[in-house]
Design a protein that fits this description.
By secondary structure, this protein is an alpha/beta fold. It folds into two domains: 6-168, Jelly Rolls; 189-424, EAL domain (TIM Barrel, Alpha-Beta Barrel), CATH 3.20.20. It has helices spanning 58-61, 83-91, 95-120, 124-154, 162-185, 229-235, 238-256, 270-274, 278-288, 302-307, 309-321, 339-343, 353-357, 363-378, 391-399, 416-424, and strands at 6-9, 14-16, 24-30, 33-39, 42-49, 54-55, 69-72, 76-82, 191-200, 205-217, 221-223, 263-267, 296-300, 325-331, 348-351, 382-386, 404-406, 414-415. Helix 3 runs antiparallel to helix 4 and helix 4 (124-154) packs across helix 5. It is elongated and about 95 Å long. The chain binds ligand C2E and calcium ion (2 copies). Ligand C2E is lined by residues 196, 211-213, 224-226, 229, 245, 267-269, 329-330, 353, 387-389, 406-408, 413.
Length: 435
């Protein structure tokens, strides 16, 4: 099957010609290709490449012409890597590797040009033996630059054995495929929001819920967010994805609130937070769903605050003035600077699940949870303990004055319909931890 990423080429077809500008590189998925160059008017083959190998990357790296021709020796299936993909990888790679690659390529181009000049001045006999040395030189050179290119695409230059290179190429082709699938996932309606209850610890009632995204991918199956949120951030897809999340979560909040007066927590990513349309997106979503701003809590991480404190301060003040609540997610795992607890208008601390899990096995974790609950109270903030899995944890947290708990003890994140059922049962079904 051919897609915008894969290309099938029949045996005997030229994939690209020496001297042409290059707009993409390839990884061989199946079949064999031959690389050749014209030396003294003769086509000299200098490499045969097989499944898992990369070619055509040089013209992309230095924005130059194709230094060789590529011919399909058998029927081949190729994975296409765009110029844009390579450029981004180079831009974010280690500067030393970037420089090394540039030097290697410049020398390659230089020697390529000189050898052509020299070979033209040789007689036929000299030229035949020179051609085979030249081919062997290019073959060695190809291996070297291919290692560097691979180092660039994976940003760790060390230990590049051929086994590692193959693994790198495999993971490059996986991540290109994933990125492409992710791009279409929104249009194909493959995302779904799950909802996890946030429970009032002293009353054992649902006070709110957190919207958590899932990807029902036709190729990868049911995929949790830690396997695609970073990629969505890197590629910028998080912006349209975030708009979709906000819209869906607000619509769900409207429906849920017909049954109980609960709030909706929405996770925000750094890039989304920094986008120009962010404030308008959230206000529109709330308006369209016909709910008020004060039933939406926005969960942000410490890294959002640290990466651009000025922007964060003005955006959070704006959100706060508009009536939204702000929670700090995973509190205690990042920089945990107390300075931002008074600098930013934060309503809620979400105590990271690592402290909650360790409460009964580590005295310090117990003290951290107690101190954070007390600190939040003194600062007039609410606390939510994450990852509550056991009854003794919820009791201890309630004893510390922690306001809310969220975790498998109450319920795992569940689809929309199941969450509605949870709300319709007046009392919380306490799921077993193994559920
Ligand atoms: P998070 O915001 O800290 O979300 C809580 C995570 O803890 C969720 O994982 C939830 O399923 C899990 N969890 C809840 N209770 C328990 C428990 O009792 N025990 C354990 N072990 N885990 C529990 P999930 O849904 O896989 O999400 C992982 C992360 O992905 C989230 O961490 C959040 O950073 C990100 N994420 C999820 N949905 C969204 C989204 O819509 N937008 C953005 N930007 N990020 C999201
Ligand atoms: Ca969260
Ligand atoms: Ca969290």
């Amino acid at each position: 099957m051919e897609s915008e990423l894969t290309k099938n080429v029949s045996a005997g077809t030229t994939i690209f010609h020496e001297g042409e500008p290059g707009d993409c590189a390839y990884i061989i998925q199946n079949g064999e290709i031959e690389l050749s160059m014209l030396i003294n008017g003769k086509d000299s083959v200098f490499a045969t490449l097989k499944k898992g190998e990369l070619f055509g990357e040089m013209a992309l790296i230095d924005n130059n012409f194709r230094s060789a021709s590529a011919l399909a020796k058998t029927d081949v299936e190729l994975l296409t890597i765009s110029r844009d993909y390579i450029s981004k990888k180079i831009e974010f790679s280690d500067p030393t590797i970037r420089m090394l690659l540039q030097v290697v390529l410049e020398r390659y181009r230089d020697i390529h040009a000189r050898l052509h000049d020299v070979s033209e001045s040789l007689d036929e006999h000299e030229s035949t033996s020179a051609n085979s040395s030249i081919s062997s030189f290019f073959s060695q050179y190809l291996k070297l630059s291919s290692k560097l290119a691979s180092a660039i695409t994976h940003q760790h230059a060390s230990h590049h054995t051929s086994d590692n290179i193959n693994k790198d190429l495999e993971s490059t082709s996986d991540s290109i495929t994933k990125e492409n699938n992710l791009k279409h996932a929104l249009d194909n309606n493959e995302f779904e929001l799950y909802y996890q209850p946030i429970v009032n610890l002293s009353q054992n009632t649902i006070a709110g819920c957190e919207a958590l995204i899932r990807w029902n991918s036709p190729t990868l199956g049911f995929t949790p967010p830690d396997q695609f949120i970073n990629l969505a951030e890197k590629t910028g897809l998080i912006i349209p994805m975030g708009q979709w999340i906000t819209k869906q979560a607000c619509l769900a909040a409207h429906d849920f609130r017909k049954h109980q007066n609960i709030y909706m927590s929405i996770n925000l990513s750094t890039r989304q937070f920094e986008s120009d349309s962010f404030m308008a997106d959230i206000e529109n979503a709330v308006k369209e769903a016909n709910i008020s701003n004060d039933c939406i809590k926005l969960e942000i991480t410490e890294s959002i605050l640290m990466s651009n404190p000025e922007l964060a301060e003005s955006a959070l003040n704006q959100l706060k003035a508009a009536g939204f609540s702000i929670a700090i997610d995973d509190f205690g795992t990042g920089y945990s600077s107390f300075s931002y607890l008074h600098r930013f208008p934060i309503d809620t601390l979400k105590i990271d699940q690592s402290f909650v899990n360790a409460m009964f096995s580590n005295k310090r974790s117990m003290q951290i949870v107690r101190t954070l609950s007390q600190l939040a109270k003194n600062l007039d903030m609410k606390t939510i303990a994450e990852g509550v899995e056991e009854k003794n944890e919820s009791q201890q947290l309630d004893g510390f004055g922690c306001d809310y708990g969220q975790g498998y003890m109450y319920s795992r994140p569940v689809p929309y319909d199941d969450f509605l059922k949870l709300l319709k049962h007046d009392s919380l079904p306490v799921a077993s931890p193994a559920n």
